[in-house]
Specification:
Largest sheet: 2 strands, antiparallel
Strand content: 15-25%
Helix content: 40-55%
Number of helices: 3
Mean pLDDT: 80
Strand order of the largest sheet: 1-2
Radius of gyration: 16 Å
Number of domains: 1
């Protein structure tokens, strides 16, 4: 366990779990497998026109708030 945390295995496990969760969410909603990547590309294109935003740090995720619904979460940070 200690070695896992030292070498980042827990991070890769968490990332794999997050990706599997996204794949399952895509399937439940009938979304194409590359939905997030396409959406992110379009957001980068749109927001790169505005110098106030840091498009290199755009984050998109599908989050399950409760058992009733899931939502797409989009974070577009301002430049510092």
């Amino acid at each position: 366990m200690i070695l896992d945390s030292l070498f980042g295995h827990n991070k890769s496990k968490d990332e794999a779990k997050r990706r599997l969760t996204l794949v399952l969410a895509y399937e439940r909603k009938g979304l194409p497998p590359n939905f997030i990547e396409r959406l992110k590309d379009e957001l980068v294109y749109i927001f790169s026109k505005y110098p106030q935003f840091d498009v290199s740090r755009i984050e998109i995720d599908i989050k399950k708030e409760n058992d009733d619904f899931e939502e797409v979460w989009i974070g577009i940070p301002f430049k510092q």
